[in-house]
Structure formats: structure tokens, C-alpha cells
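The protein record filed here:
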Amino acid sequence: MSRSLKKGPYVDQRLIKKVLDKKPEDRSVIKTWARASVISPEMVGFTFGVHNGKDFISVLATEEMVGHRLGEFSLTRKFVRHGGKMQKEIEMAAKQKEVDASKAAKTSDTAKKK
């Protein structure tokens, strides 16, 4: 644990105030920049717009997320796939196989109808 037990988990006071003021059936997004704030049981069921440095990522707090930080669910770096020319060729071949399979399925369906 990164924080001592006597201090307890860090929950942003303004964020917890926004959560307590809202009704659970209200589905509007709660915008926040507090990525270090820990998800508490009071936050379960609410949707948070967590800032990732550029825009807000919607995060629906569930039971399994309690104890984790909001920033864990709003990634700051965009993954650009690995590989290069070879990887692109492999993906194109896989896509072509998928298209051929769907065409074959359509022709067999029309043959069955006749």
C-alpha cells in the first residue's frame, strides 16, 4: 500500500461531494481531473469523466473497482500497434480470408433457398 493505514485512502473531497449530491439514478457524467482519487463504495454505479491529459474518458465505477484509482481506467498513452510492413500484410490476409468466408456463406444460403 502506498499510503499509511492511519491516513486511509485518498479520496478527493470535491469529488466525493459531487457524488453525494447526485442521485444514483442520475446517469450524467461527473467530470474530474482527480486521477489519484481512490474509488470508494459510495462511487459505485456512477459514471466519471476522467481526464487523461487531452480529453475525458468515461469510466463506470463497479464493485470490482473499489480500492483502485480512477487514473488506472483512463489511459494517458495511445497504443499504436507493433509491427510494420509484415504485420500489415498478415492483417490484410486475415481480413481477406474473413471476406471470402462471408461470401461463401452467402452463396451457400442462396443455393439452399432455391
